[in-house]
Specification:
Elements lengths: L1 H14 L2 E2 L6 E2 L2 H125 L18
Antiparallel strand pairs: 1-2
Length: 172
């Protein structure tokens, strides 16, 4: 900055000027002092204008940087929100899939329990049927044995009450 250089020259002028016998007084070359102060007055508005322009430019750059930073922050927030929503959807889907899997497992247990119950009922029914069939067969066999005994009696044979059978294992 030119003004600073001129002020330094002005200070040098005062420092190197003759000292008067009175304390704090100096003899300064008037024309040189006048030339330097006029030059400072001439340059000062230009340098102030430059400083003002620099400050304005600085303010504009700062404002632009602030706007750009705000836009970056807003964009980052939007992207973060989008990512959070995607993660939320994935979590919800996973929870839903887990719920479906748990419901399927519960339904499978219910079906298995129902099938086991039905199988037990069928076995019980089959056992009852087999017992009833065996009872009917036993009654039939007794009638057949009675008919055989009556037939033998009609030929005059005497059949003891507990006579050993000639059929062996089929009696049982």
């Amino acid at each position: 900055m030119e003004v600073h250089r001129l002020i330094e020259q002005l200070q040098d002028l005062v420092e190197h000027s003759s000292v008067f016998p009175w304390p704090g007084r100096r003899a300064v070359a008037y024309e040189e002092f006048y030339r330097l102060t006029e030059e400072i007055r001439r340059l000062l508005p230009q340098e102030l204008a430059q400083a003002t322009a620099i400050m304005t430019t600085r303010d504009e750059v700062l404002a632009g940087a602030t706007r750009q930073a705000q836009e970056i922050v807003e964009q980052a927030q939007r992207e973060a929100q989008i990512r959070l929503e995607a993660v939320d959807r994935q979590v919800a889907e996973m929870v839903s899939q887990d719920a479906v899997a748990l419901a399927a497992e519960e339904r499978a247990r219910e079906i298995l329990a129902e099938a086991e119950s039905q199988a037990a009922q069928i076995r019980a029914g089959a056992d009852e049927y087999a017992l009833a069939l065996l009872n009917r067969l036993d009654a039939f066999v007794q009638r057949v044995q009675q008919s055989i005994a009556e037939g033998k009696e009609s030929f005059g044979a005497v059949v003891p009450a507990e006579a050993p059978s000639s059929m062996g294992a089929l009696d049982r």
